[in-house]
Specification:
Bound molecules: zinc ion
Strand content: 25-35%
Number of helices: 2
Shape: elongated
CATH class of the domain at 3-65 and 97-107: Alpha Beta
Order of helices and strands: HEHEEEEE
Radius of gyration: 17 Å
Length: 108
């Protein structure tokens, strides 16, 4: 379950940025192509934040959809997986969003 280590680093980032103050809410951005399960992160968040300034903070997760640009014709479209095919037939795609996993907002 790699979400545990991911959540540990999220809590660590929040602690660093909170400057010792109690954190009220945390907003995360998780790309749908990042292979991180939001539910698992929610579950781990309580465990990882216990005893830190992040304990009790409200957790919001924004899931960003996957998008790719076709290298052949330049079309941009939504994708659900890393491997896809453009309408023009090309399989040469560049992922432009959906891989991110970051702390978007922190309220103290
Ligand atoms: Zn194309």
């Amino acid at each position: 379950m790699h979400e545990l280590s991911i959540t540990q680093s999220i809590v660590a980032i929040c602690e660093e940025n909170a400057g010792g103050l109690a954190v009220k809410s945390v907003t995360l951005e998780i790309g749908k192509l990042s292979a991180v399960m939001p539910d698992a992160v929610r579950f781990c968040f309580d465990v990882c934040s216990a005893g830190t300034v992040v304990e009790g903070a409200r957790l919001s997760i924004i899931e960003t959809p996957g998008r790719a640009v076709c290298e052949a014709c330049g079309a941009e479209f939504a994708i659900a997986a890393f491997f896809g095919k453009c309408e023009c037939g090309s399989r040469s795609l560049r992922i432009v969003s959906g891989e991110e996993m970051k702390v978007r907002e922190l309220e103290v």
